[in-house]
Amino acid sequence: MTLQTENNHLVIMAGGVGSRFWPMSTPELPKQFVDVLGCGKTLIQMTMERFAEVVPADNVWVVTNACYAAIVREQLPQMPADHILLEPCRRNTAPCIAYVSWRIKALDPKANIVVSPSDHIVMDVAEFRRVVSSSLQFASETDAIVTLGMKATRPETGYGYIQTDLSTPCARNREMYRVDSFREKPDLVTAQKYVAQNNFFWNAGIFVWNVGTIVNALRIYQPQLSEIFEQLLPYYGTEREQELIDERFPQCENISIDYAVLEKADEIFCFPASFGWSDLGTWGSLYDNKPRDAQGNVLIGNVECHDSHNCVVHCTQEKRVIIQGLEGYIVAEHDDALLICRLSEEQQIRKFTEGK
Amino acid sequence: MTLQTENNHLVIMAGGVGSRFWPMSTPELPKQFVDVLGCGKTLIQMTMERFAEVVPADNVWVVTNACYAAIVREQLPQMPADHILLEPCRRNTAPCIAYVSWRIKALDPKANIVVSPSDHIVMDVAEFRRVVSSSLQFASETDAIVTLGMKATRPETGYGYIQTDLSTPCARNREMYRVDSFREKPDLVTAQKYVAQNNFFWNAGIFVWNVGTIVNALRIYQPQLSEIFEQLLPYYGTEREQELIDERFPQCENISIDYAVLEKADEIFCFPASFGWSDLGTWGSLYDNKPRDAQGNVLIGNVECHDSHNCVVHCTQEKRVIIQGLEGYIVAEHDDALLICRLSEEQQIRKFTEGK
Fold first, then answer.
1. Would you state the pLDDT for residue B3?
2. Which of A 95-134 lie inside 8 A of B, CB atoms?
3. CB pair distance less than 8 Å for B340 and A340
4. Mind giving me the DSSP string for A287-308?
5. Average pLDDT in chain A
6. Which one of B319, B325, B352 has the shortest CB-CB distance to A338?
7. What pTM was computed for the model?
């Protein structure tokens, strides 16, 4: 079957600063722009690649902070440069999605959109493509908002959860289920309860909808926010767009799309999926998601280990690194910074780097 | 008393490669050329400074490998550039001392010479100057070979020892004692025996003699070696000097001055001294010789420690370093290399870097 893809659009949200991954990730070059896995590609490059055959390169959009424009142009030369939308300040996901939705609508009112973070990893790309294609097809035929739900394999307290009604699959796509509720990051006891049930899924922040659906939902649930981007309709794609965005965007409320729309709307579906997903939010998740050597080490860079176990080492290729006698540490070296920290204490990293 | 210093000469031996201090010390920039203590001066700069008021800058000589000529000129601009003698290859201390001795003799037959390593540290510089001045005075009046003996405060197996006859001080300088024998680096049991007696001192490799004494001793005990430098007498200070040294120096036997002369000669005196000396040969000795913070850490560079104790960290100022949860480690970062190693395992460092 040849899929119709010309109305499929990909929105990559790339405004994060990745502070928990310091010093590999810095405000100057956040982790989505870094070769975190040491595979020769940055996370945002792997993200775009993952959607090949599902979304044409001409329909790829990146929303990021103005200061990363040049980096995106350099790392994703295949996508149109004028599809890089620049936020003058950080305002969470709802303003970001509102901006790009109106921008796409002005160009392609029939657009079906998949929204994706820029810094996640996926092991089974073929299955990922199947799930996203199926969701885009579903979104093109309905007014549904689709979220991908990741099978919760452990009581993770760092993710939001989607409570799903598994009793009745959707008639039109029997892999889709109605969402009962979104749950914020739970405490450990609650997370354990969620995992014990089988109808809770991790919210991966991957959303699928057609452009009319998301624009209408924003109009209903976020009229003020919508007004801002509605008013800019005559200017999208013109020379004045950036100037007006720079003026209006800071007025947007700092609010996530989850709060702004998903928790309020009715027609929300979850597509439970398993394609080896990680948000790669922490050094521990990198450790969990890369093959380890016989000593349990994840080594990225020119690293030589002696008497060391269960470490994750991330250094640039230019550096010769010799490690001796370390058990369970993060060692990360990047340009002008070096971090050595117990993996078990990695929640302190953010604290170390605050206010610097 | 104003001391006569115009015939005092200082020879700094700076040909070492400091492999036990990797990666702070590299073959490209060995530790004598590095600001090891983080005080803004390199070890060779501190060495030259230590002899101020005892030896005029115009009488300072450095013998080093040809590849370090530019570094010495840059780091010691006060000394005459043509006093930097360049060995085309490494041949231990006897050829080095023979070369510089004939070279000085050609210029100043009345020279009194103190020979010093370039990479040691001294805490009490005033006492050091007193001891060296006194030794130079003694050497100017006698045909004695003087070695400085460091009070052995622990059974160190990394140093050679000087066995001294403490029964009768020298009549001319009552701080000087005859040397009975030189002992090579002992095993631990032997070292403990030495320390238990009070007539064994560490051989710091600091020698004092007048130029006639050392030249004569070399002629007697190392006639072949002496012949090489004797033949070059017409060329010292001329354009042909380097060319002839490059040709002849490789023919010299690889032998230390201790073996070549000191163990054979009669008129050897030891000046037992205490001025807070360390050869700074290992990370452990740096740890022992720098003030520690309340957590027992020696931190050189822009280093921030959390829950860490008894570490020695040496990084460049440009690097922001954050350490968490380390106990008793060396962390050393330098240009293109990073080492993390237990202090207790530092003897492995040489092995790590062999053949690279």
1. 59
2. none
3. yes
4. HHHS---TTS-EEESEEEEES-
5. 93
6. B319
7. 0.79
